[in-house]
Amino acid sequence: MSRLFNFCAGPAALPEVVLKRAQEEMLDWQGRGLSVMEMSHRSDEFVSIAEQAEADLRELLKIPANYKVLFMQGGASSQFAMVPLNLGGKGGSANYIYTGIWGKKAIAEGKRYLSSHLAASAEDNGLTAVPRQEAIQLSADATYLHYTSNETIGGLEFDYIPETSVPLVCDMSSDILSAPIDISRFGVIYAGAQKNIGPAGLTLVIVREDLLDQAKPEMPTMFSYKTFAENGSMYNTPPTFAWYLSGLVFDWLKKDIGGLDKMAEINQRKAQKLYAAIDDNDFYANPIAPINRSIMNVPFTLADSTLDKVFLQEAEKAGFLNLAGHRSVGGMRASIYNAVPEAAVDALIDFMTEFAKTRG
Ligand code: PMP
């Protein structure tokens, strides 16, 4: 068996020790004679797995007691509708900071349920820098302010948490768990699992308890945060295996990595050296303002774009998978989430240097 270096933006690389542990436990979980996939979600076994995962996540992110953690489905894309449905019961308007493609989708979907207002935009700088705090202008009727802390396609990441007088809602799909964060600054945080949390199929929502009573009355039961909060995310059958595997990832972050401070240190090191390799070589370029360069997703272009295909082919031959940029923007992108080892980044830098030398 040889596992290659995987730079996929999502579903993304998982820690090898997690996959091995899941493999060991696959047929017979802790001597109970069945797989986690075959357990009733209401069994003592699965409830213990679910509770441990939540406890570990709470410890990692230091989630205050007045926040609920919800294990939902539908991906982050469903949250584009669930947020206005859950918070917009009293009307008002959803305010947005626009910094890229995912935020744009959130705005387009949200408009169907609540009026919307663009509080700040990175459009005028070509989506290369995050609007500064002073530029954020809430509407008088703002119900909440939504932003995307890390735009996965553009590789544009907030370097600060916006200050606001209304609840702050954040799509943290591609940078949650990459570094410590002050949860108490937020009303709602949501994230698709398939990057830094676990496998696809699970959507994590962290919501402040006082926001659970603001839903629109016509709300479908299964889209309601309150339904999930009141039923321990088990109103219906949850994605049990994805929940279990995410728990193994949280355990890895705690025990093998040593927590989010440590994870952030490693992530910074990985990103800094990759950006340095891009900046130091005229053959490669990244357009993002240095302060807003994503530590998780590193897009880059080649000086000669006719070589894009060759670059990707040779990279794959050399064992580097999924380096193509998003289909909407082209170019290259290396997603270097928590589970992508530093050795993978080092090897990629060597490959890029060699490619530029021979083809550039
Ligand atoms: N928001 C961000 C920041 C993302 O990166 C993605 C997925 N790449 C999404 C939302 C959509 O997530 P999902 O596929 O889970 O709906």
From TrEMBL:
Alphabetical list of Gene3D superfamilies matching this protein: Aspartate Aminotransferase, domain 1, Type I PLP-dependent aspartate aminotransferase-like (Major domain)
Primary localization class, coarse: cytoplasm
PROSITE patterns in alphabetical order: AA_TRANSFER_CLASS_5
Names of required cofactors: pyridoxal 5'-phosphate
Source organism per UniProt: Marinospirillum celere
Pfam family of the protein (one): Aminotran_5
Keyword Thylakoid: no
Catalytic activity from the UniProt record: 4-(phosphooxy)-L-threonine + 2-oxoglutarate = (R)-3-hydroxy-2-oxo-4-phosphooxybutanoate + L-glutamate; O-phospho-L-serine + 2-oxoglutarate = 3-phosphooxypyruvate + L-glutamate
Localization of this protein: Cytoplasm
EC number, as in UniProt: 2.6.1.52
Top-level taxonomic group: Bacteria
Recorded name of the encoding gene: serC
List of residues that carry N6-(pyridoxal phosphate)lysine: 195
GO function terms (MF aspect): O-phospho-L-serine:2-oxoglutarate aminotransferase activity; pyridoxal phosphate binding
HAMAP family according to UniProt: SerC_aminotrans_5
Protein name (Swiss-Prot/TrEMBL): Phosphoserine aminotransferase
Assembly information from the UniProt record: Homodimer.
